[in-house]
Amino acid sequence: MKAIIIEDEFLARQELRYFIENYSSIKIVNEFEDGLDALKFIEENEVDVIFLDINIPSIDGVVLAKSVSKFSKKPYIVFITAYREHAVEAFEVEAFDYILKPYDESRIRSMLRKLETNYMEKSNNSPSKNSMSNKINLWKNEKIIIVDMDDICYCEAKERTTSVFTKNEEYSINSSISQFYNTLPKDSFFKCHRSYIVNTTKIIEIIPWFNNTYNLRLKNTSFEVPVSRSNVKEFKRIMNI
């Protein structure tokens, strides 16, 4: 499991890191004091669990948790706070646990054991192990539509959501494009631009464009997807050109 800690008190952050590293196999990949910095990281990087204080700079921890709860792949949220009064809000965002300060070592150890057990059970029942492995849940007209990934032509960033285009339909998902990209198979999808993901199996024409970039013409769509200059090298490697 990959985790981040969002806590603006240095000693509390160090103590929590000590417990996690000594009583679990969870890997801490980053630490943050500021809520906005943490949210930017979460949008660009996939994590499994967030240890989250509530009173943090820039973005209140509960507000941050509500944003994260809308992601297509939701990380576990463990609130760490000195205040009991936010417990109801934690329940509303389906937080995994609510830990009060000062930390109780046995309470932390119990939470970590349950967290790892829950993660293992969830992994053993993940869609990648059943017949739904190539399906994805998308939104259209306030309904969840199950879409075959092979039908996706390209995806486009739209503020905090991502639009997903097939031959005849446009869907949406409440996730940043980077977060959504992490859920897609890399053998057929490539993030060719900061705002676009392309299904490489749908490319029928590669058109040279300005500044040594490309536009991509896709099967079943008239829209041309751009390849940004920073992604040209990797794109050429993937496409063997």
CATH superfamily of the largest domain: Response regulator
SS strand fraction: 25-35%
Poorly predicted runs = 127-131
Write out the strand line-up for the largest beta sheet, numbering strands in chain order.
Answer: 2-1-3-4-5
CATH topology of the largest domain: Rossmann fold
Short synopsis of the structure:
The protein is an alpha/beta fold.
Explain the layout of strands and helices.
Blueprint: E1 2-6, H1 10-23, E2 27-32, H2 35-44, E3 49-52, H3 61-68, E4 76-81, H4 87-92, E5 97-100, H5 105-124, E6 135-140, E7 143-148, E8 154-158, E9 161-165, E10 170-173, H6 177-181, E11 189-193, E12 196-199, E13 203-208, E14 214-218, E15 224-227, H7 232-239
Parallel strand pairs: 1-2, 1-3, 3-4, 4-5
Antiparallel strand pairs: 6-7, 8-9, 8-12, 9-10, 11-12, 13-14, 14-15
Keywords: Phosphoprotein
GO molecular function, one term: DNA binding
Domain HTH LytTR-type: 136-241
Walk me through the structure.
It is built from 7 helices and 15 strands. It is elongated, with a radius of gyration of 20 Å. It is α/β, with parallel strands linked by helices. It folds into 2 domains: 2-125, Response regulator (Rossmann fold), CATH 3.40.50; 135-239, OB fold (Dihydrolipoamide Acetyltransferase, E2P) (Beta Barrel). The strands form 4 sheets. The protein has a 5-stranded parallel β-sheet.
Keywords:
241 residues; alpha/beta; Rossmann fold; OB fold (Dihydrolipoamide Acetyltransferase, E2P); 2 domains; five-stranded parallel beta sheet; five-stranded antiparallel beta sheet; 7 helices; 15 strands; 31% strand; elongated; phosphoprotein
